[in-house]
Amino acid sequence: MTTPAQAPQALDQVLADVRANAREQLAAAWQIHSERIADMLATGWQEQIGRVFDERFSELAGQVADEFRRSVTDRVSTQVETANSKARDAARRELADTLNQSVRRMRQAEDSTQWVDSLLDGARAFAPAAVLLRIQGETAVAEGARPALAAPLPEIPLSAAPALAATVESHDTVICSRAAGELSPALAALPSNAQRAGLFPIAVRGETMAVLYAEPAAAGLDTASLELLTTCAAAILETRRSPGAAPPKGLIAIAAAARQEGAVNTWASMPRPVQDEHLKAQRFARVRVAEMQLYQSAAVREGRAAGNLYSLLREEIDAARVAYREQFLDGPAARGQESMVDYFHAELVKTLGQDELAALGTDYPGPLV
After folding, report:
1. Cα–Cα distances in Å, from 294 out to 37, 57, 60?
2. pLDDT at 249
3. C-alpha 248: how far from chain center
4. pTM for the predicted model, two decimal places
5. Engineered SS bond to 28: which of 137, 169, 244, 293, CB 3.0-4.6 Å?
6. Does the structure show a pLDDT above 50 at 154?
């Protein structure tokens, strides 16, 4: 039983847990909606993107509030529930407001400089240090940083930065050590106490235009929020590149520069229908895992702590594995898709397991391919 002396400390811990859970659930809800936005972009509905952004934030507030009311009602006292509600609402407002403000600023940017500044200011809310790298052929060029760099970064050959090259080629987030052999001597030499960093791609129509380098805060790397931010950045960049659109001067500089170089890699060598199928598989994986985060949050937290996520989420994971296999590995659309990988497995490890395969448990059957 908690004594009066221990009550403030226990309450602080409960509030911290609720705040973290609120951020994760809101991030999962927005991940689902951002992937739906990506689907619309892929089918040519770019003109609807502005309205979708404005509508989805108001919907998310109600969804997350309802989910948390259900999850905390029977396990905390009236006093703690009141405090939880305040912490939950504050966390929701903070994350929604930060993302909303960043999205609006990027949408309203009049040139590349404003777009880059808006993205980096948004990233700074989730990471103590961030650098936006424009991909130009086989090199990466720093477009800006928060905090500002003391001296300009030299161009970074992708051949000298394996982790960065992997992000560019896979169009997926990579978490790596801050070693020169992983990130390049230039990035590794940046003043920092962090041991690891995240690389978040900004990909438009299967082509990585830029990569956001971000360092973790004391509580860890807020991967979900940074992925949402870069997904929104890519969606906005795509709308400004729509056929027939008249984008403000300079806003598409990042996309144009990368395209002019004509970088050739494994992804670029794939036929367009194959690229589209890979993108569909990635969106499928992200949505299914985000749904588990949103609707099975208690099981996710318990499974991470105990290292048995698969045991607690067996029904949901198995159903998603069957659907992934049928749609992307064995079905008619999978013919000729020898390059297809198990994106669902990768997303389980990265998001639910927080980059720890062991968190899924010893009974997890492993990747499908």
Report:
1. 18, 15, 11
2. 36
3. 27
4. 0.54
5. 293
6. yes
